[in-house]
User: What shape does this take?
Amino acid sequence: MVAARDAGRSLEGRRVVVTRPREQAGELARLLEQRGAEPILAPAIELVSAPEAPLHDAARRLADGDFEWAVFTSRAGVEAVAERLREAGLAPDEIRAKVAAVGEGTARALRSVGVEPDLVPSTFTTYALGQALPRGKGKVLLARADVALSELEAVLASKGWTPVRVDAYRTRPARALPARAAAVLRDGRADAVTFTSASTVEGFLSVAGEGPLTGNGRPLIVCIGPVTARAATEAGLTVDAVARPHTIEGLVAAVERVVRPRATRKEPR
Assistant: This one.
């Protein structure tokens, strides 16, 4: 019987490009390293602060009970609202609204600040989140990135809610790739590139162009979910795998499905 390869080193010797913002890349890089891969940090976007006044106001209204629901679609959104609450002398667990999270990563961020989400959909997408919320009346706070699509607001409005969107943070395309990432991509030494949002796709292409992701010997493209995959496809890229579930752990598993360890992969690199 042939021994199964070590699942703990399933990506031995492979280089995987991580396009998440630098401050959010740690977990993905760590999981890749545990599997023997070399994560190549190539932040495609930067997260910057949004104007403070609207978010301060929204945080106070959350504590005053002005919203029926607070909906969070990212860890960064959770952290931004929690910080505004603290600045107002309030604790996150003083939110007087039901709380929904798009997925387990966002739910963990809520729990880390003392808030247990009332709703986490079984499928971790914003569309599924909107579908999972019940019909009702009243205001729903959405603390999101400035570039987030409006699909969620439309679903909530169709259910009778009044969505109130506030920028929790803003995204900006990276100005350039780190030298190490640029060299690995230029020389065709990347085995896979991971994308975790439509904005990372757009940001990466703005600084690297399509060249490193096309042609013979291109790296495999792995996306965290269908919205990200659609953005990549619409940009002319070929998506090789989509995470299921749509989490960082699912993204790593998707990389494992399509990238073999260097010792066993047949094609030369």
In short: The domain at 9-44+174-258 is CATH 3.40.50.10090 (Rossmann fold). The first helix runs from residue 26 to 34.
